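Hello Y.,

Per our agreement to keep a running log of every chain we model this quarter, I'm adding this entry. I've kept the format consistent with earlier entries: sequence first, then predicted structure.
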Amino acid sequence: MRYTELGKTGMKISQLSFGASSLGSVFHETNEKDSFEAVEAAVEGGINFIDVSPYYGHYKAETVLGKALRNIPRSKYYLSTKVGRYGKDGVNTWDYSAKRVTDSVYESMERLGIDHIDLINVHDIEFQAALPGGLQKVVDETLPALVKLKRKGVVSHVGITDLQLENLKWVVEHSEPGTVESILNFCHYTLNDDALVDYLDFFEQRGIGIVNASPLSMGLLSQRGVPDWHPAPKALVEACARAAQYCNEKGYPIERLAVQFSVSNPRIASTLFSSANPANVRRNIQWANEDPDWNLVNEVKAIIGQQQRVTWANS
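Predicted structure for the entry above:
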């Protein structure tokens, strides 16, 4: 397992990291026993960065993760959670106000059973872009509230997350230098979309750490295919299905290649995946510690073709 410092935070995190969204039964119903074993398998396998959010499962993921972490020494992991996105009784809500995000941090610590958060992220800032105040509110209100908590020692570092890379760039450009210490972006350093590469210089020049998420592109790069809600256009879905079939014919599951590719770039500190299945966790760790078949990578990219850099938000 490779460990890389996340920007200038001093946190050396594993190249593969554990996303706890699955613990909230986000994708399908899960049980606590498997969830606990999945977290334990991740830490035992060398993963030392765990990411969660109150939004996942509408607080369930944080609650289950908190129970799982009771038997794991705090020194074994860095923990990241988020503010801004929430939900209750099946209804999603968004609130990026200073008061709500401050309260949210303390609520998350209680659910997680900890007294300190290593990294607090503003969750999916694109949603605030559509609310009164737009992204400027993240700059003027959300981030300063989290910086206050950092000064108090409640959190150690502050970051932002989003699907849209241009939003991350905008907030960094309009914030005081050093405010944003890391960014988390998903589905943009994968076999079918490597748009994150275009932004690496920008973030690196500002000392901002980079976390990639969803190496399987939310199911695009898998043998089972995408869920009904997936935003990818039909042409891309079909191209990825052809790529998955081709990998099967080669005896090399596309999931294996996808994980290996996503962790291969040393400029990206870590890639997040999520699973509540301990066997899947162990398998992904094994794959992440292997080099990809670069010839197959190029062949898969050729099959996917010009769809590689599609922007789902505009589809």
